[in-house]
Amino acid sequence: MLKLRDIIYFVLLTGIHVCAVIQPTVEVNAKLNWSSSNVDRSLRLNVGYQYKPLMLTRSMMYSLLTMIGLWHGRHRDAVKRAEKRQDEIERRARRGSILIRSYSSQLERARQLMNEWVRRQKEASLSDLQEDEAALDAELNQSEGSYFPWRKFLLIALPWTLTFVVAGMLNYGRLYLVIQNFSLTHWQTVMLYAKIQMLFLHRMIEVSLASYWRQFPVTVDNYISLETHLLATE
C-alpha cells in the first residue's frame, strides 16, 4: 500500500539524483573601467548549470526502481514475520494440547470432573493463547525489518547509486578543473558546487509553484556571480 512517506522518499531520491547529474557551467566576464587617474579592472565568474528534462526523467526512473526494491523488501519482511508468527502460535497450541491430554488421562475415573476441568482448561488456554498472540504481535512489530532482504535491495538500487556517484564525481571534477585556474581553493569549490545544486532546487521549486500559482514570484538569474579579484586595480 502506498504511504505518504513513500511519496516523500521518492521525491527526495529524485531531487538528490537530479542535483548530481546537472552539469555546471562557468562564464567569465572581464571588465575594464578607464578614468583620468586609474584603471579599474575586474574579472567576474558566472557559475550556473545546464539542465535538460531528460535528466529529470532518468532520475525519476532510477528512483522508482529503488522504491520498487524497497516495497519488495517490505513485502518479504512482512511475509517472513507472518510465517514466524503462525509457526510460533501453532507450536504453543500443540504444547497446550499435549498438556491437556496428559492431564485428562489421569482423570479417567472422574469423568464429570474431567469434563469440567477440560472445559476450564480450554477457556484458560484460549485466554492464554490470545495473550500470547498479542505479546507475539508486539514482539514481531518491534522486530520489523529484521527479515528485510538488504542484498537484493542494494542490487535493485545499484543503478541509482552508480549514476549518482559517477555523475556527481564527474561534474565536480569538471568544475574543479576550470575553477582552479581562478585561484579558488578546494573547499571553496566544494561550497560552490553545493550552491549550484541549491540554486537548481530553488529554481525547480519556484517553477513548480508558479505553475499552480501564477502570482508566485520567479527569479530570472540561474547563475551565481563571483568576483575573483585576479586583476589588480591601478
Automatic annotation (TrEMBL):
<protein>
    <submittedName>
        <fullName>GL21141</fullName>
    </submittedName>
</protein>
<keyword id="KW-1133">Transmembrane helix</keyword>
<feature type="transmembrane region" description="Helical">
    <location>
        <begin position="153"/>
        <end position="170"/>
    </location>
</feature>
<feature type="transmembrane region" description="Helical">
    <location>
        <begin position="53"/>
        <end position="71"/>
    </location>
</feature>
<feature type="transmembrane region" description="Helical">
    <location>
        <begin position="7"/>
        <end position="26"/>
    </location>
</feature>
<keyword id="KW-0472">Membrane</keyword>
<feature type="coiled-coil region">
    <location>
        <begin position="72"/>
        <end position="146"/>
    </location>
</feature>
<keyword id="KW-0812">Transmembrane</keyword>
<keyword id="KW-0175">Coiled coil</keyword>
